[in-house]
Amino acid sequence: MGRAAIHCLQILAAVILLQALLFISTTSCIAELEHPPLPLSASPSLSRHIVPRDPTTSLADPVAATASPANQDDGDDDEDALDDSDEEATPTTTTTASPPSTSSPPPLETNVTGTNYTVRLNCDESYGEFCEKVRGAAVDAVRELINVVKFDNDNITVQLNYTSFCEKECANDTLGWGAPASQFIMLPGDPIDTDYLYPQILAKQFEQRTSEWADHDVYVEINHDAYMSAVDYDAAEEAGWNGTGVPPRGKYWFKDEGPILDYQIDMTYIVLHEILHGVGIISSWGAYFIENSPLHQLIRQLIGDLFEEEELRLVTPSPSSTVLYGAGPVFITGFQRNMLFDKYLNVDYTNLNETNRVSLKDFGLDMLNFCVQDNDAFIVNFVRKFLTEENISRQSAQLYGAFAIAGTVTFDFPLSSSNKSIFNTNSYLNETYRRMTLLTGDSINNGPPEHFSASNNRPDMMISHLSGEYASTPDFIMTDSFRTGATLPQLIDSVYNDTPIVSYTEELANGTIVTHVYRSPIGPGILRMLGSMGYSTVLKRTNYNTTLDDSKSSENDSKDEKSCRLNRSYSRRRNSNSSAAVLLAPSRGIFMLPVILSLLLPLLYY
To answer: How many other β-carbons are positioned within 10 Å of the β-carbon of residue 329?
Structure first.
């Protein structure tokens, strides 16, 4: 036997021994390494009628927004403007205390149930009556949603955690984030598109025969540190604060307070923004391999400067990763299905004096077909393999360049001739809302990374907000900066006063037809986005009936076979389908496994 062969066998034996030793060591540490499942996950088991994302991602990555001052008139405080839902039956409220936490005072859990909705609030009981203010703002936000979006087959449940982000990592300029509790791959049938992931609340409207639902549909976290960062303690004491509980006049304004101050943001405004991310205004496209992303950090720890930074400037859907032994997402087999929101996105950019148009719908399907297995799925080999696929890697690099330019990505509304859509019958809506421009450019290219916990990161170059050009329009609520110094009713008045009147009709239970004027904080463009995705809205009524197409079952099964599941002969200790869910083990000894393998694998396989 040659010396080279003996050398290779020695290396192979060392790797096997290391894996065995590390497996034993991680078995005793598994309780420490395994964090509780994120509330953004769906059940990994399968259903006969509907297939959850398996395993689901937390990329419903947090989409956070910060505040910016707005130039506007200081109108009179209209505290009653949000109380137009008084006709609704008084919601029932139950309050219980959850078991004490070792890291913080026990949260106060409050459930509020009304017509077509439930709001669950977790709030530190040391905040006292302040939690009731948060609860009221959350209920008002959900009511604004159900006033214009019709959940005919199942009520919406929103889980709101009001907490200190400093328990994870201090980020006082981050107000909050929101995401779907889970996303599902649906069975084929009209009008379902099986190529995309459906947010849970929309999936529930189409399909009720499954036990796989998470116990809430939308997950929102709001940062208490941001509120406290704006408190003037001297002014609070002058206002009567006795030094206990939460001081008044922080960053958030509540409707039972006096006039809003110029630095405050209406809490209902913030919660509604995050809920809209949770019902589906969220993209899976991002830069998962560049600096500040968790995958980039892992690559650098493993192989140093093997790849140039320029090579890693890629925009892709969420990678499908597998975590072994709780040590990090070592293996990536491909990319996941896109969010339903991504189906309608197009990119226009100039390259070599030519204007190029890329449908993220089409390119996303191309990316879904890129699949590697076995040793090619090791993270370093995956990146190397992807870069050799010239067509898709070049397109991903071009998308990175396009996302760095303002105004390049649009949400294009599908053509429809339905008379049930007021967007077809109202000339103003028809001309104004043919597409919406998303936020791209410096705001998403050079912004600071958003980090919420050891296992929840937002990748760079995310496109889940509207362009800043909508800040003074009825669609202001989904821009990336919150306007300060005005209540939500005041903002609604300011943006609708200069726009044409939009009317719609509603048939009451007794058959009476009532005409309403549309003045919702959820602007017509945002509502049309939701309607395009399949929601029934007051401006485009649809039914949620589906006709299952058995003829497409084999096609769907074929797609599942291409789902790039990692074929390994040994068991996995932890699974994750999202590069945003990265767990770096606290033990250096355990984390050395992928480091050692990264040094030895090239010798064994190349």
So the answer is: 27
Q: Which of 178, 63, 68, 181 is nearest to 450 (CA)?
A: 63
Helix, strand, coil percentages, rounded to 5, for the chain = 35, 20, 40
State the pTM of this model: 0.77
Mean pLDDT of 297-320: 79
Closest CA to 497 of 144, 145, 73, 69: 73
Closest alpha carbon to 64 in 438, 482, 437:
482
Give which of 539, 140, 597 is closest to 378, Cα–Cα: 597
Please state, in angstroms and rounded to a whole number, the distance separating the CA atoms of residues 107 and 101: 8
pLDDT in tens, 105-151: 445 667 787 788 999 999 998 899 999 999 999 999 999 999 999 99
Q: Is 461 left (phi over 0), alpha (psi -120 to 50) or beta?
A: left
DSSP E strands: which ranges in 443-534?
A: 450-453, 456-458, 481-483, 503-507, 513-517
For the chain, the domains span 3-33+285-405+550-605, 50-282+409-439+464-544
Q: φ and ψ at 425, to 5 degrees?
A: -100, -20
Structure tokens at 201: 């609340």
Q: Which amino acid is at 207?
A: E
Of 379, 423, 370, residue with least CA distance to 540 = 423
pLDDT for 509 equals: 86
At 519 the pLDDT is 97
- Residue 324 to residue 321: CA distance in whole angstroms: 10
Q: Are 527 and 520 in contact (CB under 8 A)?
A: yes
Query: Could you count the other beta carbons within 10 Å of the beta carbon of residue 4?
Result: 8
